[in-house]
Amino acid sequence: MSRSVKLAVIAGDGIGPEVVAEALKVLEAVTQAEPVDFDLTHFSLGATRFLETGDVLTDEDLAAISAHDAILLGAVGGVPGDPRLKNANIERGLLLKLRFSLDHYVNLRPSVLFPGVPSPLGDPGEVDFVVVREGTEGPYVGNGGAIRQGTPNEVANEVSVNTAFGVERVVRYAFEVARNRPRKRLTLVHKTNVLVFSGSLWQRIVAEVGAEYPDVAVDYLHVDAATIFLVTNPGRFDVIVTDNLFGDILTDLAAAISGGIGLAASGNINPDGRFPSMFEPVHGSAPDIAGRQLADPTAAILSVALLLNHLGLQDAAARVSAAVTADIVARSSTDAARATSAVGDAIVTRLTDTPA
Amino acid sequence: MSRSVKLAVIAGDGIGPEVVAEALKVLEAVTQAEPVDFDLTHFSLGATRFLETGDVLTDEDLAAISAHDAILLGAVGGVPGDPRLKNANIERGLLLKLRFSLDHYVNLRPSVLFPGVPSPLGDPGEVDFVVVREGTEGPYVGNGGAIRQGTPNEVANEVSVNTAFGVERVVRYAFEVARNRPRKRLTLVHKTNVLVFSGSLWQRIVAEVGAEYPDVAVDYLHVDAATIFLVTNPGRFDVIVTDNLFGDILTDLAAAISGGIGLAASGNINPDGRFPSMFEPVHGSAPDIAGRQLADPTAAILSVALLLNHLGLQDAAARVSAAVTADIVARSSTDAARATSAVGDAIVTRLTDTPA
Ligand SMILES: CC(C)[C@H](C(=O)O)[C@@H](O)C(=O)O
Ligand SMILES: CC(C)[C@H](C(=O)O)[C@@H](O)C(=O)O
């Protein structure tokens, strides 16, 4: 008897639908021989939907999505500067609302420099680390405010909220990730010399939880120093744990040095399993190249690997990763730019050629 | 008649005294023929002083420093993890206290990749931009707090404070800098899609002040995207204006790609002239290599160039820059590591060989 997984698909805006189409192709191919059926529900959400209906994410949308086992998201966001979207903030109203409502407290972002992939760093040696970014606290909580807006006396505040509860659970997750990797090394990144309150909370929790993980080596870097190491010695990193904002910044830089944002996958995970986790490429909707089969679907396909892992389908996940790696290695020896669907097809072919 | 400049010198900790010694050598050499006398007061401040007296920066220290025309600072901070410094936070108590008390609202950090200097990016083309980092607001204000500290119910908040007054003055300064550069281009870096309150304040002010500078081209980048461009296309930047925390992060990354933190100079400037401005290398005190003549004094010497510029001694500043550039180009063709003082001496020789 095969298990059924209810998957909510949010293709989104711009290149979102194109890359999601390839991700679903791969998902179908790799699970053909697995005892699992994916039952897909497509949700039309994002800038396009907002322009049609005026809604970003209704309570009904949220309830319907919550009733699924997992979510695959392409990309959301309209054309930058579109006046009709001026007050919409699709990112906050959709992406962040999903992450917060579904308690995605782990934002998992692996960075691997695949063989043959060009890096702006030339040949930086082996790059294989993962950022565990907190997803439900920090400066992302939206607890700011402003007075005297629009006047010369305006004061605009942002509040970063950090709780022992919230930090502990993501730090523990990061220690688990570190324990299960060969190098077993965890780096806390923060700015403890300036953000002293949140900084000491993070440091205390890492020390406390770390006592339960004597096999994991822990060190600490200020966020500014971490950016230096990311470009001078990325091989020093194994697992990074950090807050929501620092994680946002570090993972874009990490993607840039390991082959670009076109290869970076991510999981917004609710490890408790109370809510569906969401898998998405790190890249945005890139409206400038949308609809022309120019987008690289690799990040979306690698997000499928993260999804499969999360569902306990480790073998299928490994097969997707292997097929993607093989495709990436092959593409570096040819100059021909391929259509979005050609990349998906090539990866599907590799999967079919090497059955489970 | 020669003008007298009262210079407060804070050599500080670790490699601070070594690099400041070279900076002062260069200052003396370059101003020999200028109608200016430097009247130096040495302040013993930093971790060493704290360990001796228990004081970080007293009101008397601050008053005495304020009575000077400018400040040259080496580096402050003790050995990381030194238990005697556990509750001291020299960075906050000294460096940030000076920046805030002396209203250093412009933190000016140029990034230039000098010819022949190795970059982790290989050959990224011309890199020549300057970050205008706000210095007295943002998440650096220390307006955070925590409740139930040390318990599982701790909540630790940090407040980023941004005012129209504070943003306007630094943005205006950045527009002036941009107007006086050949490319006349200003990039605002923020995270407006998440930090909506402070983000809209920054965007509004940039738009308003920008209307007075029609000759300056303005664009905007999210901070995460900015890190990508810094490693994939640093040549796109001319002047960056950003808040205190983003500026901290971006300037370390900027230093890393343009020859390393050993070359990065900075000015903490009070453009109003009500308080002395402070010039310092971006690097820290590096206690691990202190006292062994291993530190590169170039960043401290380039900070002297910024100091001279600030004092209106543009010719002397240009001579220091030229001598440093020549030294940097020469060093790339030799492998010999030089002692800290040898670098200073070499730059002084170049200055003396090419008189004003
Ligand atoms: C779109 C934006 C809100 C989002 C974030 O800041 O988290 C994005 O940059 C990301 O990293 O997923
Ligand atoms: C030492 C620290 C407080 C300081 C800062 O964060 O501003 C440093 O990183 C810098 O950039 O000058």
Automatic annotation (TrEMBL), chains A, B:
It holds the Pfam family Iso_dh. It is found in: Cytoplasm. It comes from the Bacteria. Pathway: Amino-acid biosynthesis; L-leucine biosynthesis; L-leucine from 3-methyl-2-oxobutanoate: step 3/4. GO terms for molecular function: 3-isopropylmalate dehydrogenase activity; magnesium ion binding; NAD binding. Keywords: Amino-acid biosynthesis, Branched-chain amino acid biosynthesis, Cytoplasm, Leucine biosynthesis, Magnesium, Manganese, Metal-binding, NAD, Oxidoreductase. Its main location: cytoplasm. Residues 6-347 form the Isopropylmalate dehydrogenase-like domain. It catalyses: (2R,3S)-3-isopropylmalate + NAD(+) = 4-methyl-2-oxopentanoate + CO2 + NADH. SMART domains: Iso_dh. Substrate binds at residues 99, 109, 133, 224. Its EC number is 1.1.1.85. Mg(2+) binds at residues 224, 248, 252. NAD(+) binds at residues 284-296. This is 3-isopropylmalate dehydrogenase.
